Amino acid sequence: GVKKTLGFTPREDIVASTAKCGAAPGIGERCTLKKVHRHYFDRLWALEDDVKLMKKAKVDWKAMNDVEVDDFEGYGTRYIKSLDEESLEKLVKKARKTKTALALDVSFPWCIKCKDARDMFETSAKKLHKKALFGYVDAREHRKLARKFEVDCTHKCTFHVLPPGELNYTEVEAPSGATSGSFVSSLETNLKPALQVVKTEKALKKIINKFDGAVVTSYDPEKDTEALKAISFAAKSHRLIPFVVLKGKALAKKKAPEGTEIWAQLPKRKKIIPFEATNGVTNEELLLFAKKVSVPEYQRYGFSFQEVLKQAEIPVAKFYIRKKEGKQEEKIIKKIAAEFYGRVATYLYDEEGHYMDMPNAGLPKDQFPALCIWDHIDDDDQRNKRYAYIPGVTEGDWSIESVRQFYEDYLGKNLMPTYKSQPVPDATYAEGEVFDVVHSTLYTEVVQNDEDVLLIMYKEWTPDKERHFKTASNLARLLKVSGVRVAKYDAYENYVDHDLFKITDQYWGTAKIYLFSDTVENRTPKLIAVSDGGDKDKGGAVDFTQGNVLKELKKLLPDVASSFDKIKEEVKVLRKEAVERAEKRKKEAEEAKKSAMEEKEKMDEILKTAEKIDVTPDEDKGVLKQIIKEGEKDTSPPEGMRVVAHYTGTLEDGTKFDSSRDRGDTFDFDIVKSQVIKCWDIAFSTMNIGERAMLTCEPEYAYGESGSPPKIPPDATLKFDVELISWRDAYATDGTKDEL
Is there a cis peptide before residue 713, judged by omega within 30 degrees of 0? Predict the structure, then answer.
């Protein structure tokens, strides 16, 4: 019955779940789409030929009135001009006439995710207004410009720069996590012409010193047109280093060796690096050369270098030290960095910023200094191989000769990769028990073993992890009769070969169950079950339940099929034990409830007569303390100490919202460091070790007007049954819990 179909591409976000289409008298069919943002840009589709659809579209602004808005209302500096089509055209003419760069923000005001990027753009305008013109176009109001600059609100936060003498805009991204300083620097780099002509040695020196280097050519623009095309391409594609054409006196005094027409001139390294072409001056080779010479020789790692290193396609050596340590080793690393410049980029990483980075490279996380070479900078790429160098991991010391040999062995492909792995378990496992596998034992105990092994892979955040462990434990017991062993593997703490396990989603978090058997697919891991039906790699795998796994193994393994009757009998035993455990837990819960009621009654009796002590500095009764049990005299924690405590928090009506006692674990925090609510900082400062007290915290000393949804409502007065167990120096390193 379909007469005609019509498709269109929305230019902005809609609430897909509320889209409705249905028959409408006199029309045929009416579709209603709810927009995510309330604004005045009512052209929802991208194609110019959707005229008929455009004429029939209507926007019900009244229906949008209840939508909260937090739109950008323009820049607060005179250096950024608000523009329409006409004024933008005039500004472009002015920029070209004065040979000045133009930087633009063309965006929708409801793109709140780009707030930080806009702040950085405004900072740039204030610092660089003498070097460029700045403008802002409200894409909501100026639709043609929105389409010209392909504006949307779903991808990156980008700005547009028109350098002097160029016809096309260059996009400058403000990546998430970028600092204001790095963005200003990135924008400034893009303000200059891609290719600059220099006639004097002084002018060349000025450019090289300002930008810490330049790619220089002595080719004649009028004669060597093909070479200049490639140079111009590389210059426009990679603006992190200036490209310079020498003429006149500058050409006469060029510093490059005889016969070299393109080279990098790097002042800090006092180096001339010739461009050595293998196939003539090509776009690709020259662009890669420019990217490599843009990489600093040795520097403390910063976010701004991430993209540079990715583009340079160069291995990265990461050198890790503790603050104020490893100075002698750092001197050696700096010398090696200079020797291997252009082949390996060397960066200094501090202990605090990259404590997770070291284990990912197969390095112990608590041994410094340390060194590792990665094939490239992308930490998220599972196929990015790492090669660790540290006494105890590779045979070597921190002499310049041994570090140099490490670099040479890497470049000569004479090293074996190192991988993240937990220590080898020292536990012994009985038959029918789940055994733990780490990366260093995975191949010997599972992959290359001759036994049938069921491997449960999981991550720290896998949902219902403990339930899956219980299922694995049951399977180990049930499969004992069939000779199938069950192992578990923490895929967060150990490296996972995504190619071996055929994993396509690097951010997976489900439990995956693999079978290793000589009789199944030549012992390559076969995925037989997953804990989530939405797993991208599920394929023909079943959902992870005890029954499903047993049925799959019965099909795949003859030993399981032949012993299946015995397995079913053992299942009955397991079920009986489960019923007995449930009855025991029920009885224990009833006894605990009874005990809790008795304790509450005792507590209520104590609190009836206990003095309510106002412990607030202003004595405004915002924090009242009633002592339930006295502690050791004169043992209150000084400011900044690490406090170890127990607590139970309730609302005024007695509803419990949190309890460390229920979790069976203490709660630690640094006192008077704003790590907890004001009530706690104030009250715990007055408590002694062993003291137990009831705190009554007014909203302004707790979670205030906003509350802490969903458990704590706005303006809530809270009660805490707290106990100070101990305190210690927050920066202690000897592992003791109580150093008082």
Answer: no
Residue 298's SS3 state is: strand
Instruction: Report phi then psi at 62, rounded to 5.
Output: -65, -35
| 558, containing H or E segment | helix 558-562
Contact 553, 545 (CB under 8 A): no
Give the separation between CA 591 and CA 588, rounded to whole angstroms. 5
Are 129 and 219 in contact by the 8 Å Cβ rule? The answer is no
What are the φ and ψ backbone dihedral angles of 528, each rounded to 5 degrees?
-110, -20
Q: Answer left, alpha or beta for residue 525, where phi above 0 means left and psi between -120 and 50 means alpha.
A: beta
Q: How far apart are the first and last CA of the chain?
A: 83
Structure tokens at 564: 């299946």
Please report how the helices 115-128 and 180-191 are oriented relative to each other, as an axis angle in degrees rounded to 10.
60
Q: What are phi and psi of 180, to 5 degrees?
A: -60, -40
pLDDT at position 626 over 80: yes
Structure tokens given for 409 = 């062995």
CA-wise closest residue to 46 among 7, 84, 15: 7
Handedness of CA 285, 287, 291, 293 (dihedral sign): positive
In this structure, the strands spanning 692-697 and 132-138 are: unpaired
- Picking from 599, 610, 603, 697, the residue whose alpha carbon sits closest to that of residue 657 is 697
Separation CA 327–CA 78 (nearest Å): 48
Residues catalogued as catalytic: 647, 657-658, 677, 703, 720
Q: Find where tokens 């133009």 sit.
A: 102
CA gap 440, 494 in Å, rounded: 9
Q: What are the residues whose beta carbons fall under 8 Å from the beta carbon of 99, sequence distance 6 or more? A: 164, 165
- Choose among 550, 532, 428: nearest CA to 477: 550
String of b and e for 392-418 (b: at least 16 CB within 10 Å)?
A: ebbebebeeeebebbbebbeeeebeeb
Per DSSP, the three-state class of 568 is helix
Report the relative pairing of strands 642-651 and 512-516 from DSSP bridges: unpaired
* Amino acid at residue number 223: K
Q: Can you tell me the distance from the alpha carbon of 627 to that of 552, in angstroms, rounded to the nearest whole number?
A: 61
Copy the structure tokens of residue 232: 């111009």
Would you say residue 356 has pLDDT above 80? Answer: no
- Answer whether 154's CB lies under 8 Å from 13's CB: yes
Geometric angle at alpha carbon 30, from 27 and 34, rounded to 5°: 150
Give the pLDDT band (50/70/90) at residue 367: confident
The residue-averaged pLDDT of 11-34 equals 73
**171-212, pLDDT tens digit by residue?**
888 877 678 887 888 888 888 888 889 999 999 999 888 888
How crowded is residue 124: how many other Cβ atoms within 10 Å of its Cβ? 27
512 with 527: CB under 8 angstroms? yes
Q: State whether residue 454 is helix, strand or coil.
A: strand
487 closest CA partner among 442, 444, 448, 424: 442
Per the CB < 8 A criterion, the answer to whether 373 and 386 are in contact is yes
**In whole angstroms, what is the distance from residue 598 CA to residue 234 CA?**
79
Which residues, 6+ apart, have CB-to-CB distance to 601 below 8 Å?
none
According to DSSP, the β-strands at 271-274 and 101-107 are unpaired
Range list of β-strands (E), 111-225: 132-138, 158-162, 170-173, 195-198, 214-217
CB neighbours of residue 132 within 10 Å = 23
